[in-house]
Design brief:
14% strand, alpha+beta, single chain, 62% helix, 8 helices, 2 domains
Length: 181
C-alpha cells in the first residue's frame, strides 16, 4: 500500500505546487486535517463515504456540503472526491501524512520532533533549529515536547533518524558498554 499512498501524495503535491494554482501548502494541509478530523469524529460519515453501495454522486453531494461549510479550496474537495471515488478513503490518514512530507520536501523544510527534559527557551530553540538546519541543509519546522524522563538534554527526531543527546541516552550507552565488557 505504500506505493499507492505515495502515488496519491505525490500527485496532489504536484497540484498544490503548480504555479497556476497559487495554493498555500499550509492552508491545504489545514483543510485536509480538518476533513480528517471530521471523518475520525463521525463514524456515520466515514461509513457513508466508504460504503461502496452508496452511489458516488451522493457521496460527492455530502462532500460538497462539508467542504462548503468548511470553506475548503476546490482542489482539496476534488482530491477527497478522487480518494472517495477510488475507494482510498481508508488510507486518508496515511496519504495525508505522506502529502505533508512531500510538500515539506518540495518547500525545503525538515520536520523535527524535539523532546527535552525541560521547557526550552526561545533562544535555545533558535540555536537548536539552526544546528538542525546546518545538518540537513533545510529550513526547520520543529515540534517541541517536554519529557522529564530524559533527565537532561534533548532527543531530536528527523524522519527515521534519531539524535539522542539526553542524559538518559548517555546513561543507557554507558550501561551497554559496561554489559559488553
Amino acid at each position: 500500500m505504500a506505493s499507492v499512498v505515495g502515488t496519491y501524495a505525490r500527485a496532489f503535491a504536484d497540484v498544490v505546487m503548480t504555479a497556476k494554482n497559487k495554493l498555500d501548502p499550509d492552508r491545504v494541509l489545514r483543510e485536509l486535517y480538518g476533513i480528517e478530523a471530521l471523518l475520525e469524529q463521525s463514524d456515520p460519515l466515514r461509513r457513508v463515504m466508504e460504503n461502496p453501495s452508496i452511489p458516488g454522486d451522493r457521496k460527492r453531494a455530502v462532500l460538497d456540503a462539508i467542504t462548503a461549510r468548511l470553506g475548503t479550496t476546490k482542489q482539496v474537495r476534488n482530491f477527497v472526491a478522487v480518494l472517495t471515488d477510488n475507494r482510498r478513503l481508508p488510507l486518508f490518514s496515511e496519504i495525508l501524512k505522506q502529502t505533508e512530507q512531500e510538500l515539506n520536501d518540495r518547500q525545503g523544510f525538515a520536520e523535527a520532533q524535539v523532546s527535552s527534559a525541560r521547557q526550552l527557551s526561545a533562544p535555545e530553540k533558535q540555536l537548536l533549529e539552526a544546528q538542525i538546519a546546518t545538518m540537513t541543509g533545510k529550513r526547520v519546522r520543529a515540534v517541541y515536547e517536554q519529557d522529564a524522563s530524559l533527565l537532561g538534554g534533548a532527543v531530536v527526531q528527523l524522519g527515521s533518524t534519531i539524535y539522542d543527546g539526553s542524559v538518559k541516552g548517555q546513561l543507557e550507552r554507558i550501561r551497554e558498554q559496561l554489559v559488553e565488557s
